[in-house]
Amino acid sequence: MNYQINTSTINFLTQWEFKSNKMYFDSSHYPTIGIGHLIKNKNETFMNKKLMIDILTDHEVDLLLQQDLIINLKVIDTISHKIKGNLNQNQVDALVLFIFNEGTIWNGLMNVINSYSNDYTLGETEIRTQWISYNKSRKKVVAGLINRRQGEVDLFFSKYMGRDYYNKAFTNSNGKIINNY
Questions:
Q1: 23 in Cβ contact with 51 (< 8 Å)
Q2: Are 118 and 84 in contact (CB under 8 A)?
């Protein structure tokens, strides 16, 4: 199948990801640039610029995001034959957002989606539970990931409420995660 990405999905990413024209370390201390682009090695380049040391223009940041989204669409196209049933546009967008952030380590989620779309033996609650279980970075639960996963799964079920709605989980001054979902 030939999937596309909605403008609303790009807006989702720009609202949830930090945008920077130069390299920074994300909340998991991975080198990142642009709009959530993980720098894979110290010599990685884009448009003849070394991402670890050079500064990207706003236009280059946008092009890098487009490249990353195209790669994610190819991942979706590659694995879509493993998903039984047809995905609607919100479901495709939610999966692109998930893969953009998590990578392709989502076999458990895919199995739950297949059960939902194939014979409805599992329902929305099971998909939500599996989806939001991907809330860890470096084996530690992160409040921002709790919020993001909730937004993604709401988008999957066409119930997305806008970025501001999802600031319900937070880390208190003692480092404990408070979850108001």
A1: yes
A2: yes
Please tell me the pTM assigned to this model: 0.82
Please name the residue that has the structure tokens 């199948």. 1
C-alpha 143: how far from its chain's center? 15
Q: Which of 118, 108, 109, 111 is nearest to 85 (CA)?
A: 118
pLDDT in tens, 90-110: 888 888 888 888 876 666 677
pLDDT tens column, 39-95? 999 999 999 999 999 999 999 999 999 999 888 777 777 666 677 777 788 888 888
Position of tokens 């895919």? 110
What residue ranges define each of the domains in the chain, with the CATH number in brackets?
7-179 (1.10.530.40)
Helix, strand, coil shares of the chain, percent, nearest 5, are 50, 15, 35
> How far is the C-alpha of 181 from the C-alpha of 176, rounded, in Å?
15
